[in-house]
Amino acid sequence: MTNYGLVIDQERCIGCQACAVSCKQENNVPMGQFWNRVLTEGGDKLDTPAGGYPEDGQDGTLDMAYQPTACQHCENAPCVKVCPVNATYTRDDGIVEINHDKCIGCRYCMAACPYNARVFNWDEPDHVPEEGTGDVEARPQGTVEKCTFCSHRVEEGLDPTCVVNCPADARIFGDLDEETSTVSKYVDNYETDRLLEDRGTDPKTYYIRGEMSPGRPQTSDKLESELDDEDNDEDDDAMPYLLGAKSGGDD
Amino acid sequence: MSSTESSGIAVPAFGRKGKLWLGLLGALIVAGLAAWGYQLTTGLIVTGMRNVFSWGLYIMMFVLFVGLSAGGLIISSAPKFFHSHRYEGFARLGVLVSLACITVAGLLILPDIGRPGRLYQFFTSPDFRSPMVWDFGIVLLYGALNLWYLWLLTRRDLAAAGSRLAFGLEDTEAGRERDRKFMFWTATAALPTAVALHSVTGWIFATQIGRGDWFSPLVAPVFIAKALVSGLGLLLVVAVLADRFTRFRVDREELASLGKVLGIFLAFHVVYLLAAERLPHAWADHFEFWAITGSFLIGESAYFWLWTVVGGAVPLALLAIPSLRKRVPVIVTAGALAVVGTMFEGIRLVFTGYEVANIDAAPGISLGGSYAGVGTDIWATAGSYTPTLIEIVVTLGIIAIGALIVTVGMRYVPIQEPDGQHAYATDGGHEDSK
């Protein structure tokens, strides 16, 4: 079985918002809404640190990190369980998706989601340009929408757009059930945590904190599983993220 | 249709005041419909709800009216279950009020739905794991049960009065005898259905791990308690108002006795259950007198105080003081305050779920309001909510439908229970001469 998941290396993330913006464009996300947000862990405002400066008698504890946050595609997704009409469901490949034709707009899923990953079309969605961007299904007024792991791209054998457009190689997408996939290896080998793990939602988005991973340099916009053997062989030496090479980078 | 004085009809005909009242209700309903129409075309953007605070007044009032619908049915069915004649004077009015409240509750869901046109999905594609599907089923069942029960309680009297609402039924002694059995069995079904209704509505919230205080096993029992409090409170208020403005007559003794019951319900809800909810956490936190007391008293919203003091301590005191508690105005005040308190308890519950976001790092969550160009702040790190005029008008319109059901019910259904001794005398009751 395929079980798609995402690893985000917060040590690599530079807070450039490319994933957030490319997501908006790829998925034609309406004005005033975001499926994918890059949050600042630190001060009260975007891109501000917590703590004090190392001068003027302050303690020099300035600290800031970025936390890209979108739908976590939980294994035990509360939104799927609360949807009264089966509009939100888990696909066979593990992606949590919404059938916009079924959605009645009751917003129980928004109450259920501990991550506030879902947004509602409170009025007729606005797009710039008006005809919209991206080759995705339209979501009408009165329905809920959220990150789909770019299922329309994944079905074509392409990585989600946030992964392809990350200039810091901080996002890795792949099959968690495939032992040799980079996501599986990173989950096994790096210290990862998941958001609000105590709620038992079992998210499929993993965050690397502490030790920076080599990331997954994007050589093509194909899914890792779509890269043919030739590609892999060729790149073996050049791509430190393939695990054989990992031991060296550890110390 | 007969409207003779002996028929038990509380409002034989609408007088000037009655027509004025109907006109007011009609105006509210029309205004509500217009507001809903506007909301349907413009979208829920015209409400105060946004992505962080995504349920508002409609759901808060839904919770209130589900609770309100309990009192009547329980007061009429509990004695029947125990083959007692107690509170019989309230039985029919109680079921009528229950029916009106559950109708209001059900209707309040409609304007909250983003695409009401797709509601048929509840039948074509239900997910039985969803507490909302359970609630949908139980609200329909409860409404149907109330309708049946009201008819069962009054149908022989309707037949005696020659009302078309008897649907061709005859008023016979044997029929009344049989109905008494039906009433027992209906009461037997009504009690667990009422418990299920309030528990399931509680579980809509109590199953959610993502929303603060919602995820608590106590929520369902609290919903039962607040249904008892608010439902009985409303019934007492409506009964006294009906006594004042219609031919319906309230038995003072029963009223005072139900007032006492309301006091007990209040003590159970506002004192006991609240303490049971708070004490273990406070104890585990710091076992020290002021720490425990402090956690009860500090850091609570205005809604908490409106609930516990205005809607809890005050009516409880009114109903506890022997020199006061038998006075009709005191009972009405206590009942009304209990309803108001329960309303704020529900409002507070929704607020505790939405005002704090679990992940509140900057810039926060996109609100999804209208985008007005560069400079629009679309972000929020915490939930805030104020209902808009549209929401208030729609809600009032739906509540007016409930009031209309009670009013029309009093006009066409014999709400006045016949005298106890002649409970099932063929002639439908003669209380009105009192």
Brief overview, please?
Chain A is of the alpha+beta class.
Q: How does this structure look, described?
A:
The complex is a heterodimer of chains A (251) and B (434). With 251 residues, chain A is α+β, with helices and mostly antiparallel strands. Chain A has one domain: Alpha-Beta Plaits (2-Layer Sandwich). Chain A is built from 8 helices and 10 strands. In chain A, the strands form 4 sheets. Chain A has a 4-stranded mixed sheet. In chain A, strands 2-3 form a two-stranded antiparallel ribbon. Chain B has 12 helices and 2 strands, in the order H-H-H-H-H-H-H-H-H-H-H-E-E-H. The longest helix of chain B is centred in the middle third of the chain and has 34 residues, at 173-206. At the A-B interface, strand 2, helix 2, helix 3 and strand 6 of A face helix 5 and strand 1 of B.
Q: What is the residue-averaged pLDDT of chain B?
A: 90
Biggest sheet record of chain A: 4 strands, mixed
Quaternary state reads heterodimer
**Can you give the helix content of chain A as a percent range?**
10-25%
Total strand segments of chain A: 10
| Structural class designation of chain A | alpha+beta
Mean pLDDT figure of chain A: 90
Radius of gyration of chain B: 23 Å
* CATH fold-level label of chain A: Alpha-Beta Plaits
**Annotation field: number of helices of chain B:** 12
What Rg of chain A do the Cα atoms give?
19 Å
The low-pLDDT segments of chain A are 233-240, 242-251
Give the helices and strands, then pairings.
The complex is a heterodimer of chains A (251) and B (434).
Chain A: E1 4-9, H1 18-26, E2 37-41, E3 65-69, H2 78-82, E4 88-90, E5 96-98, H3 108-112, E6 119-120, E7 144-145, H4 151-154, H5 161-164, E8 171-175, H6 182-189, E9 192-193, E10 205-208, H7 229-235, H8 246-249
Parallel strand pairs in A: 1-10
Antiparallel strand pairs in A: 1-8, 2-3, 4-5, 6-7, 9-10
Chain B: H1 16-42, H2 57-81, H3 88-112, H4 121-124, H5 131-160, H6 173-206, H7 219-245, H8 252-285, H9 289-297, H10 302-320, H11 328-354, E1 365-366, E2 379-380, H12 389-412
Antiparallel strand pairs in B: 1-2
Helix pairs in contact in B: 1-12, 2-3, 2-6, 2-7, 2-11, 3-5, 3-7, 3-12, 5-6, 6-7, 7-8, 7-11, 8-9, 8-10, 8-11, 10-11
